[in-house]
Task: structure prediction
Amino acid sequence: MMTKVFLTHLKSKLPDVAVFIDEPMSKHTSFKIGGTADIYLIPKTQAELVSSIHLVREHELPLFIIGNGSNILVSDKGIRGVVIDTTGFAKIIINPPFITSYSGTKLEELTMIVGDEGMTGLEFAHGIPGTVGGAVTMNAGAYGGEIKDVLHSATLLTATGEVVEFSNEQMQFEYRKSIIQSSEMIVLSATFKLEYGILEEIEEKMEQLKEERWCKQPMDFPSGGSVFKRPPGHYTGKLIDDCNLRGYQVGGAGISDKHCGFIVNLGNATANDVMSLIKFTQATVKKQYGVTLERELKLVGDWDQ
Result:
């Protein structure tokens, strides 16, 4: 009943927002896994995004914000409530030395545009499968660089509906973490402070990092990215490999032959397959080396555990 009332109000107040009922989340995650979302919305402006969130909160429905669907594992049972997709909310504003990007912008697009402008600092993010909002939320990083190194400020929506601007320091960045994860705030946009560099060197570095990803990571199979955080003093992939788990499978999920820190969907994996493989891997590494592997992959949806 609450859902029907919500949909009626949504259609009345936000007629231009795209609405999908019982939407398969496998269509929206990099793992190509997940049950259906009760309601799936795609706003295209900040006003629509903010108003959609307000409306969900007014109706006290569960809310999940999704970008490119990477770094998450959606339950086979799906997601109850409302999923709001930010990828329709994508725009980049260049005002050197600042670059402002809306949360739904894909990192790949941002790094290409910044590179074409001859601005340096975001090369590390070239090839990271995700959006700006997700990258800021988790302080995404690779090849020695992190979002915290280049972020100037972020525009956030608070739990009470206020739009506020946080400085880099206020974001409380740590390894794969920011203040967003311990609050109900949502990233609306991010401003990066970059420098001008030599165009040829920027292009060369981005191409080099792209080649490294394809050589070292299982880009040819659906995955959620790195499954585990790097434990202090160890390399996750090596620990797993040393346990002779390279290529180990549970159902349609397997530990990548190319990089043991990744679990891939070999074609018909379920979320439960992936979770079983995660738990088996954690238990095996703990037993053999006494090291606890902390999951980086975020569980989303209706999970029993």
Q: What stands out?
A: Residues 271-289 form the longest helix (19 residues). The chain is about 30% helix and 25% strand. The chain has a mean pLDDT of 94.
